[in-house]
C-alpha cells in the first residue's frame, strides 16, 4: 500500500466496523483501509466470549445510576445510556433493511434485563431507583418485586433452595432487554465493507503514526507473520485498537494524549452449557459490585446466545495481566509511562487501595470459591456444571485531574487531535453497545464541514439522529417498538 487513502481504521473491532460502515454509507467514494494485527477481525473485546454481550441500555446496571451522598438517585446518566443504545438499535435495523446485516437472530436476541439485590440498604436503593425510572419513557415496562414467587417466575434459578432468612431481597425486570453477539455483528459489518471495496488487511500490525508536511498521516506497519514492513498515508486516522490505542496515540505525538494512562484488568467467567440448567434461566441478572471493584466487574448471571447456541455465564472474576490486549505484550503497562502521565497514574494507585485489595482477593479465588460466589445468585449451582473461561482484557482510563491529580475513569473517552485528522478511543464498557453514538460524536468533531451535508443520510439510517426520545413518550414508544420489530426482539 503506497497510495494516500481517505481513512485508515486501526483495529478490527466493533468501533472501526461501525465507523467504517457509517462513512461508506455517507461517502461511498472514499478509499478506506482497515488494519488488524491478528489473523481475523473481532478477536479481542468484540469477540462474543470476551464480553458479556449485554446490550447496555442501563436497564439493569446499577453503576449507571449510583446513589448520591444525600440518598438521592438521578436517572440522567441511565437515560443517556439508553438513548445511545437506541441509536445502535436503529442503525442495526436500517442495515438489516438494506441487506448489509444478516437476519437479526444471527447477532441479537430478546433477553430480559434484571437487577437482584439483598439486604435492607440495597433493597431500599433499588426501590428508589425503580421509582425514579418507571416514569421515564425509555424505561416503560420496568417491574419491581420483593415477592419470591414473582421473582421465581422471572428467574427460577435465583429462588430455588434459597434459604429463608431475615435478609430482604428485591428485583427489577425489563422484558425488552437484549443479548448481543458483537463478534458476529462486527464480522458482518466488515464482510459488507469488503464487498464495497474496503481493504480489510489482517496480520497488519501498525507500528507508528507520523504527521506529514502535507497534513496526512504516515501509517507504518509490518506484517505480523513475516515481519515485512510497509506504510501508506491517510488523510484521517481512527485508532480503535482497544487497549493498544494509547500506545499508538502516544506514538503519533498528538499533545491531546498527554496525561492519559490505562490500567489493564482482565476477566474470567464461569460458563455452563448444561441444557437442564440453561433452560431454567432466560435473563441477564445484575447486582451490586463488591467493595473496591471497578464498575465493569459488577457480578451478573447471563443468558448468552452465540452462533445460535444458548449458555449461561456468571462473573466476571477479575484477573491481572500487564497486557493491554488478550494478545498483547507483557511490557504494555510499562511502555505507556511518560512524564506527563506518571503522576496521574501514581495518584490513582494511592487513591484506590481498595481496588488493589479487590484484585488480590479475586486472584486468590479457586474454582470452588468462584462457584461459591455464583451460589449467592444461584443457590443450586454445582461445581461440575461450570467451567472457567478467559474473557478479554479491558484498559480502564486513568487521566489528569486538576483537583485530585489523577482519576480512574469508568467508561469510554474519545481523544482527538486539534485539527481533527486523528482520533482514538480509550476505555471499556459500555463501549460496544454505544458504538453508534460514539461514532456520531466523532463525525461531528472530526468532519465538522461535512456533518450538515450528511445530516439527511444519517437521519435515514438513525431516525432519532439529532434529537432525543425520552422527552416524548409517544415518540419513544413508537421508536422502541419499530426497532424491536425490525430486530425481532419483541419481548
TrEMBL record:
Keyword Oxidoreductase belongs to the record: yes
Oxidoreductase listed as a keyword: yes
Pathway: Carbohydrate metabolism; tricarboxylic acid cycle; oxaloacetate from (S)-malate (quinone route): step 1/1
SUPFAM superfamilies: FAD/NAD(P)-binding domain
Pfam families named among the record's database cross-references: Mqo (PF06039)
EC code: 1.1.5.4
InterPro entries the record matches: FAD/NAD-bd_sf (IPR036188), MQO (IPR006231)
Origin superkingdom: Bacteria
GO molecular function: (S)-2-hydroxyglutarate dehydrogenase activity; L-malate dehydrogenase (quinone) activity
Gene Ontology biological process: tricarboxylic acid cycle
Catalytic activity: (S)-malate + a quinone = a quinol + oxaloacetate
Cofactor(s) needed: FAD
Taxonomic source organism: Microbacterium saccharophilum
Name of this chain's protein: Probable malate:quinone oxidoreductase
Gene assigned in the entry: mqo
Keywords assigned by UniProt, alphabetized: FAD, Flavoprotein, Oxidoreductase, Tricarboxylic acid cycle
Enzyme class name: oxidoreductase
Amino acid at each position: 500500500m503506497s497510495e494516500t487513502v481517505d481513512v485508515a481504521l486501526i483495529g478490527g473491532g466493533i468501533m472501526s466496523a461501525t465507523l467504517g460502515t457509517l462513512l461508506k454509507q455517507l461517502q461511498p467514494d472514499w478509499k478506506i483501509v482497515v488494519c488488524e494485527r491478528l489473523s481475523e477481525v473481532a478477536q479481542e473485546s468484540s469477540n462474543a466470549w470476551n464480553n458479556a454481550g449485554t446490550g447496555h441500555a442501563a436497564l439493569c446496571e446499577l453503576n449507571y445510576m449510583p446513589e448520591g451522598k444525600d440518598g438521592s438517585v438521578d436517572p440522567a446518566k441511565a437515560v443517556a445510556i439508553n438513548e445511545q443504545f437506541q441509536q445502535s438499535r436503529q442503525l442495526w435495523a436500517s442495515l438489516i433493511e438494506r441487506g448489509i446485516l444478516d437476519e437479526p437472530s444471527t447477532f441479537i436476541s430478546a433477553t430480559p434485563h434484571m437487577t437482584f439485590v439483598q439486604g435492607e440498604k440495597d433493597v431500599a436503593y433499588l426501590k428508589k431507583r425503580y421509582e425514579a425510572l418507571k416514569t421515564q419513557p425509555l424505561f416503560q415496562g420496568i417491574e419491581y418485586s420483593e415477592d419470591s414467587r414473582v421473582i421465581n417466575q422471572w428467574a427460577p434459578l435465583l429462588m430455588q433452595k434459597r434459604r429463608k432468612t431475615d435478609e430482604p431481597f428485591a428485583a427489577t425486570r425489563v422484558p425488552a432487554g437484549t443479548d448481543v453477539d458483537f463478534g458476529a455483528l462486527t464480522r458482518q459489518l466488515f464482510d459488507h465493507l469488503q464487498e464495497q471495496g474496503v481493504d480489510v488487511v489482517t496480520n497488519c500490525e501498525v507500528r507508528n503514526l507520523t504527521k506529514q508536511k502535507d497534513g496526512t498521516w504516515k501509517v507504518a506497519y509490518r506484517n505480523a507473520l513475516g515481519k515485512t514492513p510497509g506504510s501508506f498515508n491517510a488523510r484521517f486516522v481512527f485508532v480503535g485498537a482497544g487497549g493498544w490505542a494509547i500506545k499508538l496515540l502516544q506514538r503519533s505525538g498528538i499533545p491531546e494524549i498527554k496525561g492519559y494512562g490505562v490500567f489493564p484488568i482482565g476477566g474470567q467467567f464461569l460458563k455452563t452449557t448444561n441444557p437442564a440448567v440453561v433452560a431454567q434461566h432466560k435473563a441477564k441478572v445484575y447486582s451490586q459490585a463488591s467493595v473496591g471493584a471497578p464498575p465493569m466487574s459488577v457480578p451478573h448471571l447471563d443468558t448468552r446466545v452465540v452462533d445460535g447456541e444458548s449458555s449461561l455465564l456468571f462473573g466476571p472474576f477479575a484477573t491481572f495481566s500487564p497486557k493491554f490486549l488478550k494478545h498483547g505484550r507483557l511490557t504494555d503497562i510499562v511502555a505507556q509511562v511518560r512524564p506527563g502521565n506518571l503522576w496521574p497514574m501514581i495518584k490513582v494507585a494511592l487513591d484506590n487501595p481498595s481496588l488493589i485489595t479487590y484484585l488480590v482477593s479475586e486472584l486468590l479465588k479457586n474454582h470452588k470459591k468462584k462457584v461459591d460466589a455464583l451460589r449467592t445468585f444461584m443457590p443450586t449451582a454445582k461445581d461440575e456444571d461450570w467451567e472457567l473461561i478467559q474473557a478479554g482484557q479491558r484498559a480502564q482510563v486513568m487521566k489528569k485531574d486538576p483537583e485530585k491529580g489523577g482519576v480512574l475513569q469508568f467508561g469510554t473517552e474519545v481523544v482527538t487531535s486539534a485539527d481533527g485528522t486523528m482520533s482514538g478511543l480509550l476505555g471499556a464498557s459500555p463501549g460496544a453497545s454505544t458504538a453508534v453514538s460514539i461514532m456520531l460524536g466523532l463525525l461531528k468533531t472530526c468532519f465538522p464541514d461535512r456533518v450538515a451535508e450528511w445530516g439527511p443520510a444519517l437521519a435515514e439510517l438513525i431516525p432519532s439522529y439529532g434529537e432525543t426520545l425520552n422527552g416524548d413518550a409517544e415518540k419513544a414508544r413508537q421508536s422502541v417498538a419499530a426497532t424491536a420489530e425490525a430486530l425481532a426482539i419483541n419481548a
